[in-house]
Each structure stands twice: as structure tokens, then as C-alpha cells.
Design brief:
Layout (H helix, E strand, L loop, with lengths): L10 H29 L5 H10 L1 H29 L4 H33 L6 H38 L6 H22 L5 H35 L1 H7 L1
Helix pairs in contact: 1-3, 1-7, 2-5, 3-4, 4-5, 5-6, 6-7
């Protein structure tokens, strides 16, 4: 495996990328992990509708967190491309396009998430029970949409991990973790979208998702600390180049 001769990252880019990574993790954990669990009840459209209308504040916060995540994803996609394109322009392009594809799906998915509120809060020709049923369908399609963008994200992490392994810029342990963990997103997306139910696959997916979650957070923390340390060790040069 050919490795790049570059051994240093731009400290400002590393610092910004690390901060973005951790902020996206917080926003995503809230909007994807917490909010739906408080509103959507599988197989019970009436309860889901009541939860939505009773917790509009939480619903709106989820929309804001999703919107922030999408915008921050655009920024980090560009920064990561600039950081690693000198290592492998082709792999960096694959990583960037994959993550941009994920962002597009996330945008459509956000629209699916707000459609139930439109159905339940605006006058329509539907009966209330029909509106509730349609709202439930939109929530369920939104959940499937997450698995769609996970496939794009898995491809991104696979390319990013391979770039790290080909370079001297980031510890290779992080590259291995991202590359291996990426299959958690890829396999889960394909399993859920094909409605496959195999216990062995479920266990494998859980293990891979644990790996990728730990290593993604580790990558974000490493970038943030690396950027802060480089900035602190070169105060004079930073002042001169501003």
C-alpha cells in the first residue's frame, strides 16, 4: 500500500473539523436518536399523532437540530476533502461525493419528517383517522430514509479510512476503525431496506456500529486536540499569518 509523504495537517482545518464532528454527533443523537423515540409509536397512528401535537416544542427542536446537522455536514465535507485530497485525489473525491449524496438524502428525509405535522395541523380533505394514518406512513418512510443515507455514509467512511491508512497524517488505528466500522452502516442499510431478518446479521451490525461510533468520536476528538495543540505550539507564526 503506497503512503503519502505528508505528515502534518493544517491545524485550523483539523480544529474546525473536530469541532464540527462532535457538534454533528450531538445534533444527530438528539434529532435521530431521542426525538423520534418520544413521538413515534410503531403501529399506533393515533398515539403518534397525539404525541406530535402534544410535544410540538420537542418536534421543532428536532427539526432545528436536523437542519443544523445538514448545514454542518456540508462544511465538514468540504474541509475533509481539502485536508486529504493531496493524499489521494480519487479517494478524496469518492469520500466527498458519497457524503454529499448522504446530505441530499438527509434533506429529503427532513421533508418527510415535517409532513406529518402539515397533515395533522392544516385543514385537509382527509378524515382525522386518515390523516393520522398518512402521518404514520411518513414517519415510517422517514425511518427507512435513515438507512438510505447510512449507505452513502458507509461508503464515505470506507474511503476516508482508506485515505488515512495511505497517509502519515492521522493514526492508522483510526483508519482501521473507520474502515471496518463503515460496514456496520452499509450492512444495516441493505438489511433494513431489503427487510431481511437474520439474527447473526443483527449481532454483527451491532458490533460494527459500536466500533464505528467509538472510532468516529475518537477521530473527531483527535482532530480537535491535534488542531488545538498545533495552534498553541505556534502562537507567533499564527499571529503573523492572520
Amino acid at each position: 500500500m503506497t503512503k503519502s509523504n505528508l505528515t502534518t495537517l493544517n491545524s485550523r482545518d483539523a480544529r474546525i473539523a473536530g469541532a464540527l464532528y462532535l457538534t454533528i454527533a450531538v445534533c444527530g443523537g438528539f434529532s435521530i436518536g431521542y426525538v423520534p423515540s418520544q413521538i413515534v409509536v410503531a403501529g399506533n397512528a393515533a398515539t403518534t399523532a397525539a404525541n406530535l401535537l402534544d410535544q410540538l416544542g420537542l418536534f421543532r427542536l428536532g427539526v432545528l437540530a436536523d437542519s443544523a446537522m445538514i448545514l454542518l455536514e456540508i462544511a465538514i465535507t468540504v474541509i475533509l476533502y481539502q485536508m486529504f485530497r493531496s493524499v489521494s485525489p480519487r479517494l478524496a473525491m469518492i469520500a466527498m461525493i458519497s457524503r454529499l449524496g448522504m446530505i441530499v438524502v438527509m434533506g429529503f428525509n427532513l421533508l418527510l419528517w415535517v409532513m406529518p405535522y402539515v397533515l395533522l395541523s392544516q385543514p385537509t380533505a382527509f378524515e382525522p383517522t386518515d390523516s393520522q394514518a398518512f402521518a404514520q406512513v411518513f414517519f415510517e418512510v422517514h425511518a427507512l430514509g435513515i438507512y438510505v443515507w447510512q449507505i452513502f455514509f458507509g461508503a464515505h467512511l470506507l474511503a476516508l479510512g482508506w485515505i488515512i491508512l495511505r497517509s502519515q497524517l492521522v493514526p492508522h488505528l483510526l483508519g482501521w476503525g473507520l474502515s471496518i466500522g463503515a460496514f456496520g452502516y452499509l450492512i444495516q442499510g441493505l438489511v433494513e431496506l431489503t427487510f431481511t431478518d437474520v439474527a447473526a446479521l443483527d449481532i454483527t451490525i451491532i458490533g460494527l456500529l459500536v466500533i464505528v461510533t467509538v472510532w468516529e468520536l475518537g477521530f473527531g476528538l483527535w482532530l480537535l486536540v491535534r488542531g488545538l495543540r498545533s495552534t498553541a505550539s505556534q502562537p507567533n507564526s499564527t499571529l503573523q499569518t492572520v
